[in-house]
Amino acid sequence: MANIKSQIKRNRQNEKRRLRNRMFRGAARAAVRDARLALAGGEVAASREAVLEAVSRLDKAAEKGVIHKNNAARRKSRLMKALAALGK
């Protein structure tokens, strides 16, 4: 445990940020998982909704700095590519 007052405050801040980041990261992961399951199911309409939700969650996580913007872009690209292949 820290003895220095500023480090005690820093630890409190880090814990709050960790929990907030975890919320956004978890939501993005869950949305991506749901989108992949929908794509595997093969139904185009449900897949499109799930993919758009996942894209939104990834954008929000990248906007907050929880994940890198290129990481979000790569995941979105893969989901959209799979959705396009399903549509054909």
Chain-wise SSE layout:
Layout: H1 5-41, H2 44-64, H3 69-87
Helix pairs in contact: 1-2, 1-3, 2-3
Can you characterise this structure?
The chain has 88 residues and is mainly alpha-helical. It has one domain: Ribosomal protein S20 (Methane Monooxygenase Hydroxylase, Chain G, domain 1). Helix content is 88%, strand content 0%. It has 3 helices and no strands. α2 (44-64) runs antiparallel to α3. It starts with a helix and ends with a helix. The mean pLDDT is 96.
**What's the tally of helices?**
3
Which structural class should the secondary elements be placed in?
mainly alpha
Shape, per Cα inertia axes: elongated
CATH class reads Mainly Alpha
Largest sheet composition: none
Beta-strand residue fraction: under 5%
What is the gyration radius calculated from CA atoms?
17 Å
How many domains make up the 3D coordinates? Answer: 1
Encode the helix/strand succession as letters: HHH
* Average pLDDT rating: 96
The CATH H-level superfamily is: Ribosomal protein S20
The residue ranges in which pLDDT falls below 50 over 5 or more consecutive positions are none
Number of strands: 0
- What is the helix fraction of residues, given as a range? over 70%
CATH topology value: Methane Monooxygenase Hydroxylase, Chain G, domain 1
